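[Q] Does anyone have a clean structure-token version of this?
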Amino acid sequence: MSRHDTSIIPPELLLQAYRAGIFPMSDSRDDPEVYWVEPRMRAILPLDGFHLSHSLARTLRRGRFRVTCNEAFDAVIDACAAPRAEAEDSWISLRIAESYRELHRHGQAHSIETWQAGPGGTEVLVGGLYGVGFDRVFCGESMFSRASDASKVALAWLVAALRRAGAELLDCQFTTPHLASLGAVEITQAQYLDRLQAALEPQVGGESSAGAASGASAAGTGGLPAGFAALLVDAAAAGLSSSPGNFIAQSLTHTS
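[A] Here you go.
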């Protein structure tokens, strides 16, 4: 591949790679080359094993953040790719970022955003995450936080929305102390591929019970956005439309 090749990775190639258990990275923000990664060990976050701490549950219930889905995908990926104090450079190159923007336009890359009130009645994006969704799988790519608990709240909503949509596998790629504290575990790549294949196969009898109950199918492009929308409907039905974070805390407390 030429060092001057800055074309995007085609969406169909990206999805083919994820379905095979591999994903792209770069060495730096300005590197036009990508390399394909198949880790020996893989981090996943079991959707029934999210660790909801008392402090995070309290943050959710108090509604410190407004949480959205796919409202600011470009801003989230830019924030995730920005330089960080603990890293010399970002693996999210300009080429990779543009590739995921195109995948988002195709409806198979999604973001969760957390917002706080800013000056003059405005809202400020203070945290979020993005990833790739297909079949009953969501592959988390990166997250960022500019306020305490902002990325944790985004992840809590992600887990709740994926559960609501009938998803089965949340891939975190590499383990970190932060993810481990929230319930992520490490498995071998061979074990991951077994779980991935199971989540790609058609379900006997159609949708999962969660998906059927909400009308939110995890197949194709509908998983995370449909699950997120279903959570808001559920919160309203429970009389918590003004405090959906409280509903999320309740749902995760009952299942974690």
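[Q] Thanks! Anything notable?
[A] DSSP finds ten helices and nine strands in the chain.
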